[in-house]
């Protein structure tokens, strides 16, 4: 069983011990998180978007997932919290001038630096390769390093000038603890948004119900007029209390006067509306040649004489 030709085996070749756990290379893990899409595992390319948990995606991959969630994808659990296009934010990144891309090592005979990143911090110049902590603003989408935000403390974005608060800062590719905190904040925001929507719906329902109630229940003045009219028709003034007027008459006579005045006002208003409608119709008809104003009278018309000359 081997050992022919004077070979001397070693102990680890003959005795098999427990298998060692395979350790993932840190550089490879950082490159996978900062240079590749978390959903499609393809290289990141513009436009690059992120979610409330700080993960990086290609925008086209997220749109394809939102259009068809039933399709089987390897990393669908990563984007299970995304409900629509409003849950993602496009990032405003700063290009790294030292980045040459894939053109640098086309033949494969040159050293490729794994730590060289595509984007940098616009304030400090740190490369976004995973060694430094980076954050983005939820208001404008600009990306900065944590060192820049600590050294230059402002409430205005360094790149676009939009104001922001500390609540708008979201860590990119944070640790498990940071991701859990971001998830709690995301759930709280969604609960608040649902509560505000419910309150708006209830207010809208109240405003809609109020005019319908007013239509069903007429005004108190109309009820008073109706009661006065019935009392005068029946010749009984007991339905209304007698309010002494300047001449000592009861309230029924005042109600009758008000009814007469309202009837005359309604008749005058209807007559005015009919007159205005007739005037509008006449002005509209006058635009056409078939109207009486466009036709010529006999005095205006001329007798045409036709003459057919013969030239030989």
TrEMBL record:
Any Pfam family matching the protein: Rtf2
Cellular component GO terms held in the UniProt record: nucleus
Biased composition (Basic residues): 191-202
One example of a Gene Ontology biological process annotation: DNA replication termination
Compositional bias (Low complexity): 245-268
UniProt region (Disordered), positions on chain: 191-312
Listed PANTHER family: PROTEIN C20ORF43 HOMOLOG, REPLICATION TERMINATION FACTOR 2
Protein family per UniProt: Belongs to the rtf2 family.
Protein name in UniProt: Replication termination factor 2
């Amino acid at each position: 069983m081997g050992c022919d030709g004077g070979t001397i085996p070693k102990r680890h070749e003959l005795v098999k011990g427990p298998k060692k756990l395979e350790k993932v290379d840190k550089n490879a893990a950082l490159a996978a998180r900062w240079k590749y899409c978390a959903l499609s595992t393809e290289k990141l390319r513009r436009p690059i978007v992120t979610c409330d948990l700080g993960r990086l995606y290609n925008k086209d991959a997220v749109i394809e997932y939102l259009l068809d969630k039933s399709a089987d994808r390897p990393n669908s659990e990563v984007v299970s919290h995304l409900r629509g296009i409003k849950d993602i934010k496009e990032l405003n990144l700063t290009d790294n001038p030292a980045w040459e891309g894939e053109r640098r090592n086309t033949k494969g005979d040159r050293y490729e630096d794994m730590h060289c990143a595509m984007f940098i911090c616009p304030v400090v110049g740190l490369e976004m390769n995973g060694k430094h902590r980076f954050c983005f603003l939820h208001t404008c989408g600009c990306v900065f390093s944590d060192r820049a935000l600590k050294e230059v403390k402002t409430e205005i974005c360094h790149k676009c000038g939009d104001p922001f608060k500390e609540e708008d800062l979201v860590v990119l590719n944070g640790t498990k603890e940071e991701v859990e905190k971001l998830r709690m904040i995301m759930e709280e925001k969604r609960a608040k948004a649902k509560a505000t929507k419910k309150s708006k719906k209830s207010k809208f329902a109240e405003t809609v119900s109020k005019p319908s109630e007013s239509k069903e229940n007429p005004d108190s003045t109309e009820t008073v007029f109706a009661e006065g009219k019935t009392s005068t028709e029946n010749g009984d003034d007991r339905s209304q209390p007698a309010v002494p007027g300047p001449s000592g008459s009861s309230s029924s006579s005042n109600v009758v006067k008000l009814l007469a005045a309202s009837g005359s006002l309604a008749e005058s208003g209807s007559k005015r509306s009919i007159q205005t409608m007739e005037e509008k119709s006449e002005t509209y008809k006058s635009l056409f040649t078939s109207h009486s104003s466009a036709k010529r009278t006999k005095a205006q018309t001329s007798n045409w004489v036709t003459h057919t000359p013969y030239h030989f």
